[in-house]
Amino acid sequence: MLGNLTVEQAYSRQSRSLHPYSTLREAVDLTLSTFQADFPVCENEQLVGLLTQTRLLEALNRQGPDVPLKEVMLTDITPVAPNEELFAVQQRLAESHLEALPVAEEGRFLGLITNRDISELYRFVSSQPDLIPKSQTSVDHGGSYTR
Fold first, then answer.
1. Residue 64 neighbours by CB distance under 10 Å
2. What is the rounded distance in angstroms from the CA atom of residue 50 to the CA atom of residue 59?
3. Dihedral angle at the C-alpha atoms of 72, 116, 43, 73, nearest 10 degrees?
4. Which among 8, 41, 1, 5 has a CA at the least distance from the CA of 145?
5. Interval 21-58: pLDDT, tens
6. Where do the domains of the chain lie, and which CATH numbers do they carry?
């Protein structure tokens, strides 16, 4: 059922990112105020890493809340592109034991795709397939559908 769907139709465009010099304390504050658990780490709009909730908790326990993200973030994460098939991304999330992957185009951070986003879209497709916007109309170009 996910075969014809792309990341563009499911990813969260309002995902918050942090800077490499942000601290674990700032990540915790943002988690508590937004309920976002994983954070892309960006310099300007360029993706440089990913702070997962698991990494955040491990680092807090080992190093304390004032450690900069650049010391604990994952840097070997390959982002997904908006046009990638959702099924392949779901498989990649499962194989890598991650809950989220950054979505980027030419290194520029666009948002996050999470297991929850994929499950949500799957539930809608299962129930009412005609509710799901087509790929080209789901991009936010001033008034179009966004998550």
1. 11
2. 14
3. 10
4. 8
5. 999 999 999 999 998 999 999 998 899 999 999 999 99
6. 7-135 (3.10.580.10)
